[in-house]
Amino acid sequence: MLNATLCGLVLSRGRYDFLYATSPPLFVGGAALALSLLRRIPMVFEVRDLWPESAVALGELRNPCFIRWATALEEACYRRARRIVAATRGIRDRLAQRGIPPEKLILIPNGANTDLFRPQPEAGRALRHELGLEGCFLVLYAGIHGVAQGLEVVLLAAQRLLQTPEVCFLFVGEGPCKADLTRMREELGLSNVTMLSAQPRERIPAYLSAADVALVPLRRLDLFKGAVPSKMFDAWACGCPVILTVDGEARWILEQAQAGLFVEPESPEALVEAIRFLSEHRDLCREYGANGRRFVERHYSRQVQAQRLVELLERLDKA
Q1: Looking at the structure, do residues 169 and 153 belong to the same domain, yes or no?
Q2: How far apart, in whole angstroms, are the C-alpha atoms of residue 115 and residue 117?
Q3: Tens digit of each residue's pLDDT, the chain (319 residues)
């Protein structure tokens, strides 16, 4: 945070109308707070996750002194900001519950870069050939392998589908749970699971185009009822339907889009049932994917979200 503040002081010698910061990481907000005060530049603060609240709920953050310090920094960022941009309705509503004035809160949801994330059928077929996954019903998880995702549930579902050879799983990414998940795959003898390291972002559309369905999982926590993972929009932008295990706001969006299935969080049995259903109804699966692409283009493209942000900044500039 100190380095970011010092760099900002050196680089921000011109005149700026606004300072825009996004969290997490919260320390970016801390650096922006310092610069905003020192340079007397109005600050707009984007919140994509309620940190440290989410880290405490997941058990990832336990030190009470650090929690108090991080919460105080978070609250200071909220007080200083002229406007707070919430990435989901759940975040907006939670901040309102914590006493942030409603007129200070603006909803600009996550979205997908539809220029980068688009259907790439030829690249998808080539990738399947390269990985030896031709002909199977391919279930993809691409993203961080962390505590919040509960990916051990996916491996338990894969174990139940070992006798269904037409279904295979592909994991792409890294994270704090990757080693444990790799070990679990070996212990369970999951020959239907392929695990790859993290890939460059520009390669992810090929993986999504190769997949028949993408997984968007989170653990069963009340906190996640206000979460809307951006990987859902990335998958839809590539014409790939999703199986979602996030109840609440994300489920509501999924049902509006008609672009996949919701299953109960942390239930291998429910996940198996959804995968089997989609593998047996591939026309419906493709229809879900096409619905997702149209829905993102209309409502959740980065272009749409950028225009909303420009309009917000213009209103603030005139105020």
Answers
A1: yes
A2: 6
A3: 545 544 544 455 667 888 999 998 888 999 999 999 998 999 999 999 898 888 888 888 899 999 999 999 999 999 999 999 999 998 999 999 999 999 999 999 988 999 999 999 999 999 999 999 999 999 999 999 999 999 999 999 999 999 999 999 999 999 999 999 999 999 999 999 999 999 999 999 999 999 999 999 999 988 888 889 999 999 999 999 999 998 999 999 999 999 999 999 999 999 999 999 999 999 999 999 999 999 999 999 988 888 899 999 888 877 7
Range of the domain at 247: 121-299
How many CB atoms within 10 Å of residue 296? 27
236 and 210 share one domain:
yes
Residue 217 shares a structural domain with residue 262: yes
**Interacting residues of 310 by C-beta distance below 8 A, sequence separation 6+:** none
For 306: left if phi > 0, alpha if psi spans -120 to 50, otherwise beta; the answer is: alpha
HEC string of the chain? CHHHHHHHHHHCCCCCCCEEEEECCHHHHHHHHHHHHHHCCCEEEEECCCCCHHHHHCCCCCCHHHHHHHHHHHHHHHHHCCEEEECCHHHHHHHHHCCCCHHHEEECCCCECCCCCCCCHHHHHHHHHHHCCCCCEEEEEECCCCCCCCCHHHHHHHHHCCCCCCEEEEEECCCCCHHHHHHHHHHHCCCCEEEECCCCHHHHHHHHHHCCEEEECCCCCHHHHHCCCHHHHHHHHCCCCEEECCCCHHHHHHHHHCCEEECCCCCHHHHHHHHHHHHHCHHHHHHHHHHHHHHHHHHCEHHHHHHHHHHHHHHHHHC
**Residue 57's CATH number:** 3.40.50.2000
121 prior amide bond cis, ω within 30: no
Nearest Cα residue to 46 out of 14, 93, 86: 86
